[in-house]
Design goal:
Elements: H1 5-17, H2 20-45, H3 48-60, H4 62-67, H5 74-93, H6 97-113, H7 120-131, H8 139-152
Helix pairs in contact: 2-3, 2-5, 5-6, 6-8, 7-8
Length: 153
């Protein structure tokens, strides 16, 4: 049984362009954006040098390079997964309800690509719980918006 996310992604691009080459090009672009997202995420935890090394390793990692142009769900999934992490980390610095809603929606799409992360909302909810010191009046709203976005998809 196949999840509907990646076939829908291909159908939308193919419906617009009538070309599978366009799917490959978009996947290559998503792979490039994944490198940028990894750099931004790594910059939160590592030095500038460490962030560049992390992005550089993803850039030259053989399977990432090989599969970038092949029509497989890996590139889209990695991009969406990194996007969720980046949104979540960005929310920590500047909390906003819409970021949690968008993060939930992106995670919902990623789950439609690869259902292996279907329980990740529980982890994100727990992280929010500890981030806001367990007793914030906004905590349940943030968790609620995140889960609404996730279940909306």
């Amino acid at each position: 049984m196949r999840t509907p996310g990646y076939p829908a992604f291909i159908a939308v691009i193919y419906g617009i362009t009538r070309s599978l080459f366009a799917v490959s090009v978009i996947q290559i672009l998503l792979s490039a954006f994944s490198i940028v997202l990894l750099y931004k995420i790594a910059k939160r935890f590592l030095s500038e040098w460490g962030s560049r090394i992390a992005a550089g390793l993803l850039t030259i990692e053989p399977s990432s390079v090989f599969y970038a142009g092949i029509i497989l769900s890996d590139n889209l999934f990695v991009f969406l997964f990194l996007a969720v992490i980046w949104i979540f980390l960005n929310h920590k610095d500047n909390p906003a309800y819409w970021k949690m809603l968008v993060g939930g929606i992106v995670l919902g799409f990623a789950t439609l690509i690869r259902p292996i992360i279907q329980f990740l909302p529980i982890v994100f909810a727990a992280l929010l719980f500890f981030q806001f010191r367990l007793f914030s009046k906004y905590l349940w709203k943030y968790i609620g918006y995140f889960l609404i976005g996730f279940f909306l998809i």
